[in-house]
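Lecture 7 notes: from sequence to structure.

We start with a single chain of 123 residues. Read the sequence below before looking at the structure.
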Amino acid sequence: MTPFGKRMRELRAARGLTQQQQADHLGVSKAYISALENGRRGQPSLPVVDQICVWLGLIWDDAEELKQLAAVSHPKPTIDASQMHEKAIELANRMAQNISQLDEESCERLLAALNSELDRGDR
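Now the structure, written as tokens:
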């Protein structure tokens, strides 16, 4: 399950809505909604995310949160490190080769460290 799929499911369920209702409203199949939720489909396009936000009645921060989750929810991300320095290439390869060995807690720690480092660069 992707972060986007998990949150979309939570929001839909909290409103007592079904996948079929969502599919009907968006003009897609129930299988597509299920695949989005379970990470078997790629990252949804911004227009689809906007339609989902409208259907769920999300505004401001809630809509922005769902859009940000969609941006980090591609189940098969790729990294083109060909023009990067050697440490970036090593990092990309180590992550690709070893991510399956990391449990959720380890991923949380690595994400926190990465986010902290990226925040430092914004200053």
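The helical segments are 3-14, 19-26, 30-38, 46-56, 60-71, 86-98, 104-121. Keep this in mind for problem set 3.
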